[in-house]
Protein: Bifunctional NAD(P)H-hydrate repair enzyme
Organism: Streptomyces hoynatensis
Amino acid sequence: MRSAYRVETVRAAERVLLASLPEGALMARAAAGLAAACARLLPGGRPRRVALLVGSGDNGGDALFAGARLARRGVGVTALLLNPERAHPAGLAALRAAGGRTAGADAAEGVLGRADLVVDGITGIGGRGGLRPGAAELAELLDRAGEEGPPVVAVDLPSGVDADTGEVHGAALRATLTVTFGACKPGLLVDPAREFAGEVRLVDIGLRPELPAEPDLVALEAADVAALLPRPAAESDKYRRGVVGVAAGSERYPGAAVLAVGGALCGGAGAVRYAGPAGAGVLARYPETLVSAGPPSRAGRVQSWVVGPGVGDDPNARATVDDVLAAEVPVLIDADGLRGLDPERVRARRAATVLTPHAGEAAALLGGDRAGVEASRLGSVRKLAERFGAVVLLKGSTTLIAAPGGGPVHVNPTGTPWLATAGSGDVLSGLVGSLLAAGLAPVQAAATGAYLHGLAGRLAPTPATATTVTAALPEVWDQLLSATEVSSEG
Ligand SMILES: NC(=O)C1=CN([C@@H]2O[C@H](COP(=O)(O)OP(=O)(O)OC[C@H]3O[C@@H](n4cnc5c(N)ncnc54)[C@H](OP(=O)(O)O)[C@@H]3O)[C@@H](O)[C@H]2O)[C@@H](O)CC1
Ligand SMILES: [K+]
């Protein structure tokens, strides 16, 4: 499991560690890891030039000490000092002693134009708000160079992004690689900041033992998901494996029923019941489905319900959602089912509820606009979870999952833009509902479903469609299960 910690937590852990180490030792560890990562990106066989962008805090200090290490290896290093009087004194002395040069920000165009690599040490975890004008100009200069420009290695964080929330207010540096120290920060895993970070590499500076057991953000890895996947036991029957009910589709949108049932058949439940007006289409595609045309409460026993995809917005749809909400089993509500959803109605349920909005649906539930949700994904998903007393899976460029009452937010690491395709969300809702029926806890079901769905999106032939994503799901299971068999044998 990958973990990320907020700045406050990182600073508290750093204080404990700093007290037990000689002065400068922690920064030396950070600079050594940073210099090694930079050296790997430099071309061989000719004089190499590195430009350091140096702010007035310890982030700039890291850049200066790493620059000194590179200069000692024969690299031509020039530090652009944004605020010469306030640059880290010991770092500056180390760079100069190693033969590195310094220049003011007015020399930026020439220095950056000649650089093979740029090291962004303007701000790290001490940065507040969007970059100030001098720093913003450097970001714009590099943005203008675009692909033609040198690679940028961000020190700890790309300067200008919010470490805790992933929000970006104004200009920020766009990095090829971010070398982060001690612990990953939430902003490095959540859009829009994640996009500025490029590849993220964690350098161990000895902080781990001082960090609390519960991170602020977590991302499942393949082994975690494989361990969570429900497997049938020898004595299993369909009820013990779980039966998932799907109340989806309408005369107008019959395809949503087929896709949600398809997802549900690939989520590990022993059987799928379908209740609604699109039964004929569902049976034609998936004859193993148990189909009924009446309300969900008359469909027979289930261990979870999925409601909403393609149910439309007529009064029948509302009645279907209400009928499902009255069930005493976990319920997943998606798409049309989310429209006008009453928070009190959801909060009053005794069994778990999972909501799976995209940014537009989340904005409607919060009474805001879509752009606001996209700019503040972490805050939005937490707010929704509290308001509805439900687990919320916020779909999008980085899918996030939050539970009411706090605890770590999950970020899904397997997403791909190819999943932004019609009907893909219907497949996800069936899949997560099925994992709920199989007995996974709601957050685990949502995080596991998002992970499987993302991998299937990557595995499906390009361009992925909801149908090919569904078809790729069994192979995703195979890959995950066989990888864990190998590792448990080895
Ligand atoms: N602690 C440790 O043990 C270790 C820490 N380490 C390293 O230290 C980093 C944290 O250092 P830090 O606390 O000095 O803050 P930092 O990120 O340099 O920024 C503060 C400076 O930025 C400025 N500034 C603020 N906002 C700005 C903006 N929008 N636009 C422009 N400027 C802005 C602000 O200016 P001021 O407000 O003071 O005028 C101040 O000068 C951390 O990320 C890691 O790299 C590692 O070596 C491992 C050990
Ligand atoms: K930085």
Observations:
- The chain has a mean pLDDT of 96.
